[in-house]
Every structure is written in structure tokens, then in C-alpha cells.
Amino acid sequence: MNFSRIVLACSLLAFACRPASHAEPSRERQEVSDRLEDATRLLKDVGKKVPGGVARDAVCAVILPNVVRGGLILGARHGHGFAVCEVDEGVSAPAPVILTGGTAGFQLGVESADVLMLITNDDGRSALMRGHFEIGADVSAAAGPVGTGTERATDTKFRAPVITYTRSSGLFAGAVVSGVVLEQDREATRALYGKDEDMRSILAGKVATPPLAKDFMDAIEAAINAASGR
Q1: How high is the pLDDT of residue 150?
Q2: Contact 115/81 with Cβ under 8 angstroms?
Q3: Residue 218: beta bridge partners?
Q4: Can you spell out the DSSP letters for 33-82?
Q5: pLDDT score, position 102
Q6: Taking Cα atoms as reference points, which of 163, 36, 54 lies closest to residue 93?
Q7: In the chain, which ranges are continuous DSSP H helix?
Q8: CA atoms within 13 A on the CB side of 194
Q9: What is the pLDDT of residue 11?
Q10: Coil, helix or strand at residue 30
Q11: 103, 75 in Cβ contact below 8 A?
């Protein structure tokens, strides 16, 4: 083999063995990245609107940007987001989740709404960690109070395991959400972590936060600091 052929062979080999990091991101990973950006923006926009007393007592949070609900099919909803829980070291890595189902009574048409759920006790945390539960059947939910001094105005020593808020057309308010199922998004989990990870392991703090979720976790930390007055 002459010198030119050796050079060509080496070049082809180097091209074939490029690190995977140079490859185009998968569609699933790009979708997860976009959802993380949306969830980060939602946290920054509404984090300070949740009363401090409510935010401080939350043990887990579920952030669901751009949940679509179609009133023509009895208010059916569908959305993707992320859950995090309080752990000894601070906050767990984010667990991708899907919200499906709905209840009657919404206006006709299709509307996009942001949903924030705060889990307030061990019953709610256990249900979330199972990776599949229905709000209204497995655990109850209540509309969250909004504004200073309103922590005591509704279910406030948190008899309800889930406190819910929505934001639609710029309006942020407590909202009753029932008849919806929240479960682990397995496809998004594989895209985010590169393999299957169990929901319980993620939310228990046994899985490291991937670099893709850094900005989202920074927003979580900022929301916690704001609630704590730091």
C-alpha cells in the first residue's frame, strides 16, 4: 500500500471513530431540552407568585408547561413536564412526567395552560414516586392560595396532598385539577439520562442531575431561596 492510500485509510478511520458527542442530538433529546427550557421559564415567571408559606412546606414539585386541554372532549388534558423532590442533599434530579386525562366543565376549544403542582406531604410524595397516580382518586388536590397573607385561606395546613396552580393567558391562579393521571415519561427519561431510570430512584436523589438540566435546577434553587427569603 503506497503512502497516499495509507493517509486516505487513516482519514476514513478517524471520521468513522469520531466521538458520539459530535453527532446530531436525537429528536427525543431535543424535545426534552425544549421542555426543560419551557419549565425553567415557567419557574422564573411564577415562582415568586406562590405564597412563601405554601412553597416552604412543599416536599415535591411538578412543573408542566404548555399543557393542552380540549374542552370538546370533556376537558381532556395532555402535557409533559418534570418532577423534583426534597432530598437530604437538597433537591433531586428532575424526573420527566406525563399528565393525561381530564374532567368536564372547561370552556369549548383547545387552550394551552401552564400547571404547577406542589406536593405537600408524604402521602403525595409516595404516590408521585410510584410513577403513576390519579389526582382525585389516589390523592386529593386543592387550589393553591395566591398572594401575601392568603396561606390560611384554603386547605392550608395541607390536608390535601397536592396544591395546584395554573397560568393561562397571563393569569396565574389556584385551580382545582382532578381526574388527571400523572406518570413517568419513560421515553423522555431515556433521552435525558441515556438509559432507563426508575422514578423512585430519581426522586430519592440516587441519580445524578444530567448537564442538560443544569439551568432548570438553578431555577429550582432560586425558587427555593426566594421562598426562604434568601
Answers
A1: 47
A2: yes
A3: none
A4: HHHHHHHHHHHHHHGGGS-HHHHHT-SEEEEEEEEEEEGGGTTEEEEEEE
A5: 62
A6: 36
A7: 3-16, 27-46, 52-56, 122-129, 186-193, 199-203, 214-227
A8: 9
A9: 42
A10: helix
A11: yes
User: Per DSSP, what are the bridge partners of residue 167?
Assistant: 114, 172
Coil, strand, or helix at residue 114? strand
- Average pLDDT, consecutive stretches of 10 residues, N- to C-terminus, the chain (230 residues): 44 42 68 94 86 88 83 58 94 94 48 87 93 87 75 53 86 82 94 95 96 95 78
Burial class (CB in 10 A: 0-12, 13-18, 19+), 226: middle
Predicted confidence at residue 6, as pLDDT, reads: 40
pLDDT at 229: 67
Cα distance between residue 67 and residue 24, in whole Å: 28
Q: Which three cell numbers stand for residue 83?
A: 418532577
CA 112, distance to chain mean position in Å, is: 16
Q: How many residues does the chain have?
A: 230
Nearest to 79 by CA among 160, 170, 188: 188
Nearest to 102 by CA among 179, 167, 39: 179
Amino acid at site 72: L
For residue 91, how many other CB atoms are within 10 A of its CB? 19
